[in-house]
């Protein structure tokens, strides 16, 4: 494991941490049971096969 030789300043630490963000999932419109719903792109095959049901 890497160990820093010097202490990192608070501003540098916060600037580094601010780059770690969760990305918003890309939603894709999909027709399920006659309704149009928005689902994440990576889950479209599961919704089409009926493995997942959209929330009401």
Topology:
Elements: H1 10-17, E1 27-32, E2 35-40, H2 44-49
Strand-residue fraction? 15-25%
Main pleated sheet: 2 strands, antiparallel
Number of helices: 2
The succession of helices and strands, N to C, reads HEEH
Spatial strand arrangement across the major sheet? 1-2
User: What characteristic shape results from the CA principal axes?
Assistant: elongated
State the end-to-end CA separation.
47 Å
Structural class: alpha+beta
Beta strands, count: 2
List low-confidence stretches: none
Overall mean confidence score, pLDDT: 90
Helix share of residues?
A: 25-40%
C-alpha-based Rg, rounded: 21 Å
Organism: Marinitenerispora sediminis
Pfam families: Ribosomal_L32p
Keywords: Ribonucleoprotein, Ribosomal protein
InterPro entries: Ribosomal_bL32, Ribosomal_zn-bd
Quick overview of this protein structure:
This protein has 56 residues and is α+β, with helices and mostly antiparallel strands. It has a domain at 26-56. It has helices at 10-17, 44-49, and strands spanning 27-32, 35-40.
Describe the structure.
25% of the residues lie in helices and 21% in strands. It has 56 residues and is of the alpha+beta class. It has a domain at 26-56. A hairpin with a 2-residue loop joins strand 1 (27-32) and strand 2. The longest helix is centred in the N-terminal third of the chain and has 8 residues, at 10-17. The termini are far apart. Residues 1-20 are annotated as: Disordered. Pfam families: Ribosomal_L32p. This is Large ribosomal subunit protein bL32. InterPro entries: Ribosomal_bL32, Ribosomal_zn-bd.
């Amino acid at each position: 494991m890497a160990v820093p030789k010097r202490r990192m300043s608070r501003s540098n630490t916060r600037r580094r941490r601010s780059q770690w963000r969760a990305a918003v999932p890309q939603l894709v419109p999909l027709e399920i049971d006659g309704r149009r719903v928005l689902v994440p792109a990576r889950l479209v095959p599961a919704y089409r096969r009926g493995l997942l049901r959209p929330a009401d």
